[in-house]
């Protein structure tokens, strides 16, 4: 979960550079900086988000199918190794692309009328570009089918639990499985909304672009690609929903902050306390409940902190 949050954070840092590139599309230096550094970091963190969503779903699925035991992949050490291997692999491929890009395209003149980074691709970089995107598409398909498999497996386990509950009414595991099904559905929905449209457009754009040569379909594919990239960035906004439903610590912290804000927002009592009563002379006599209320308020604030 922390790695997914880190990927979303670094992805958000790439957005100002992307905006600056399109705002100053005639700047050669800005185009080279974005295409070599900004775009590379952007796609690195995008696929980091995809992979870490896969790991979260796999961990949840193992908890469902093996609720009474801990798989080797669910240990803290295994999680550290998997996360490290993921970042190293993504950084290695991005570094290779960045190195070839700097050696073959840095300082090249912009082609008039072009906006994206495609016009800067050399022959060597274009070949590496296709290889990396083919590998990325394979990762996407693997993650997509894995998420569907995990969700379907959760449904089957829920049906089995419901049948067992009909035979043994004292069994109460169906409610937890129903919650797990809902959580898995949220994860699959966020993944499909953010990343499926992008990959449906990205592969045709990557392999058909050299044959279109600025025709109508070239421009159409380009704008569709940019629109789906914008949709993929929505993932950084929807991932907090995943944090909330999958992470108990995150929910506990939000609940603690909410209780603390409610406690701090309560106005101080300047008038007579609720325990005051009116006597025949018209004066107010305060009951000893003031001290009790104060001690209760202090204990409540202490529990919140």
TrEMBL record:
Record domain G-protein coupled receptors family 1 profile: where: 1-243
Any one cellular-component term (Gene Ontology): plasma membrane
TM spans (from-to): 36-57, 78-100, 131-152, 184-201, 227-246
Predominant cellular place of this UniProt entry's protein: membrane
Membrane topology classification: Multi-pass membrane protein
GO terms, molecular function: G protein-coupled purinergic nucleotide receptor activity
Record's subcellular location: Cell membrane
InterPro entries from the UniProt entry: GPCR_Rhodpsn, GPCR_Rhodpsn_7TM
Entry keywords, A to Z: Cell membrane, G-protein coupled receptor, Membrane, Receptor, Transducer, Transmembrane, Transmembrane helix
PROSITE patterns tied to this protein: G_PROTEIN_RECEP_F1_1, G_PROTEIN_RECEP_F1_2
Family: Belongs to the G-protein coupled receptor 1 family.
Record protein name field: G-protein coupled receptors family 1 profile domain-containing protein
Lineage: Eukaryota, Metazoa, Chordata, Craniata, Vertebrata
């Amino acid at each position: 979960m922390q790695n997914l949050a880190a990927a979303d954070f670094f992805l958000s840092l790439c957005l100002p550079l992307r905006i600056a590139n399109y705002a100053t599309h005639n700047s050669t230096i800005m185009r080279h900086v974005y295409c070599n550094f900004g775009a590379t970091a952007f796609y690195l963190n995008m696929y980091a988000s995809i992979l870490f969503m896969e790991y979260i779903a796999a961990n949840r699925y193992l908890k469902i199918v093996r609720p009474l035991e801990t798989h080797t992949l669910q240990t803290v050490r295994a999680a550290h190794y998997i996360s490290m291997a993921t970042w190293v692999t993504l950084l290695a491929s991005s570094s290779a692309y960045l190195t070839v890009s700097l050696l073959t395209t840095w300082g090249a003149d912009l082609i008039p009328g072009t906006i994206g980074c495609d016009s800067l691709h050399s022959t060597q970089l274009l070949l590496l570009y296709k290889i990396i995107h083919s590998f990325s598409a394979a990762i996407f398909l693997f993650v997509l089918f894995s998420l569907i498999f995990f969700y379907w497996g959760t449904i089957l386990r829920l049906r089995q639990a419901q049948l067992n509950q009909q035979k043994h009414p004292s069994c109460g595991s169906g409610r937890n499985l129903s919650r797990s099904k809902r959580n898995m559905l949220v994860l699959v929905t966020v993944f499909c909304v953010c990343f499926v449209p992008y990959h449906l457009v990205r592969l045709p754009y990557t392999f058909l672009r050299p044959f279109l040569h600025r025709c109508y379909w070239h421009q159409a594919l380009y704008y569709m690609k940019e629109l789906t990239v914008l949709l993929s960035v929505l993932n950084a906004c929807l991932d907090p929903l995943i944090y909330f439903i999958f992470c108990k610590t995150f929910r506990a912290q939000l609940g603690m902050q909410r209780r603390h804000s409610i406690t701090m927002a309560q106005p101080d009592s300047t008038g007579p306390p609720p325990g005051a009563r009116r006597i025949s002379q018209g004066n107010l006599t305060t009951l000893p409940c003031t001290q009790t209320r104060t001690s209760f308020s202090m204990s409540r604030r202490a529990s919140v902190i």
